[in-house]
Amino acid sequence: AGFRDLRVFVSPDDPELAALFGGIAAFKRGGPAASSLIVRTINGETAAESPYSEALESLGFEKDRGSLRLW
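Given the sequence above, the corresponding structure tokens read:
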């Protein structure tokens, strides 16, 4: 698993945010099938409570004990 601490330098309402996070989801799809991608924090905040969590969830990330995980 990777991307434990994610730093995002655009605002949560930036129109390019979906494209940026879409690249992360595409990276996972190209990786090993058995692994998952876990984001524990986003800009120092708990990932599941971050203003960015909705954008990641729309790409298939799921809340998991405060983290966001993409299977």
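The first strand starts at residue 5 and ends at 6. Try to locate this feature in the token string yourself.
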